[in-house]
Amino acid sequence: MLARGGRGGGQKWNRNGQPANGGKPVLRDYAKRLVQWALSRARDKAHARRKFHDAKASDPVRAHQALLKIGELYAVEREAKDSGMDNEALLALRREKARPLLDELETWLIDTKQAVLPKSPIGQAIDYALSNWTALNRYADHGFLAIDNNAAERAQHRHLYFTGRLRSS
Fold first, then answer.
1. Close Cβ partners of 21 (under 8 Å, ≥ 6 residues apart)
2. 3-class DSSP string for 34-54
3. What pLDDT was estimated at residue 144?
4. Rounded CA gap, 72 and 143, in Å?
5. pTM exceeding 0.85
6. Which of 21, 90, 98, 107 has its Cα between 20 and 30 A from that of 78?
7. How far apart are CA 146 and CA 10, in angstroms?
């Protein structure tokens, strides 16, 4: 592979003078990487919810409280989906309803963290939520982001399965 000009090595070229990416449009590659970056930065509420679900065996009361609060956030999203809101209306709804719920959840997480063992399942779930708090809340500041990325993960999983990269022998 040879690099030609530009900053940071520029476009990669093979020995025949063709683009090293097989001639695929660079914009498509860039868009794919941009979507992957956005998904990685907008943390998945479903992951946090699963951690609280897993903690139900050891601390059912606190885990249930957390799951109820997270469920209220999903109810806001369901309301938006049922009414067919566009991104601007969804953002306004999130600011009106989801933002106060998120603030309430954050307060509950901080208060509850003091009362649980850090290595317990509920302590680890709380720690995960608080350490990823900014990324977990990014969806509330943008109407185009989903509350979780389950659909994207399912699509990626199907793609990996059907291309043979995920199949077990």
1. 12, 29
2. HHHHHHHHCCCHHHHHHHHHH
3. 84
4. 18
5. no
6. 107
7. 34
